[in-house]
Amino acid sequence: MNQLDPESFLHASLTMPVADVRSPAEFEAGHIPGAFNLPLFDNEERARVGTLYKQTGRMAALELGFDLVGPKMSEMVRAARRMAPKGEMLLYCWRGGMRSASMAWLLETAGIQANLLTGGYKAYRSHIRENLVTRRKFIILGGMTGSGKTLCLKRLKEIGEPVIDLEALAVHRGSVFGAIGLGPQPTNEQFENELFKELQCFQPEEMIWLEDESRQIGRVYMPEIFYQAMISSPLIQIVVPESVRTQVILDEYAGLEPTSLIRAVEKISRRLGGLTTQRVIASIDEGRFRDAVELLLPYYDKTYGHSFKSRPEQPVYVLDLTGISVSGYPDAIIKKKSSLVQYRGNQGR
User: Fold this and answer.
1) Based on CB atoms within 10 Å of each CB, which residue in 111, 306, 324, 328 is the most buried?
2) In 10 A of CB 223, how many CB atoms?
């Protein structure tokens, strides 16, 4: 069996299947993106082995482990063959110790070449923390709620610009309404894993587009080092007419389930005030979604302004898109980016 450091392991994972042999609960908390879960022990079995190890010692835990794994060995081999039809795969456990070594022995006995992650998942996580923003350059797209930032980034990505959609990674749209109609959010740890994977898709010299976000997206928190890199990067703040903002919000939210929208409004009722809350809820109940949006916009504008003032050192470049059709926003944004890159390059001479 081969031992690979995290960088080599991740490079190999681009063309080779990866198996995480930890328990399902460990896998759920965080795993290398794209990995399959091929657990040596299930959650209960892992707890039993761990408890016995602490209470009695290594040998007793080993014997219990053999008893638990024995009846499952043939199914593990069959599962591995389904994952790795070419007969070679990557394996990791928590520390790169007995679990991955035991699985590697089993698979190699069955004719499957196993390559292990030195130091296991723990080493992978250390590698991420050390390299998350190393040699990375960002450019941030900001603007008031409903400015169409997410739509613009989607279009920029389609035409070949380097883009990372943080809200897609977080499975949340970034507001109190952001979780409606979406699946469960990842753990902070898994969000960080997915973010690192996305960053590896780009060359160090590329300026990667990100949407302006607070550090918290729903229940997910961005890594502090990444967030600090974001808020020190140049920001293009787009300004669009309120009518456009209203329509963008309607297109995204008006078709969602009204009860869920109302529950979200109730979560911010103290900040909205009693009368405004009642008016927004009545508008949603009666299907007057445009009225509801127009009532909510002042609250979101105030929130955005407060967030903006909390980071006065960030270089900000305003781009007024009034008079430009929404379909023309991406071209105007790219033109602004090009002028900024040229300007900042001249400054450095």
Assistant:
1) 324
2) 19
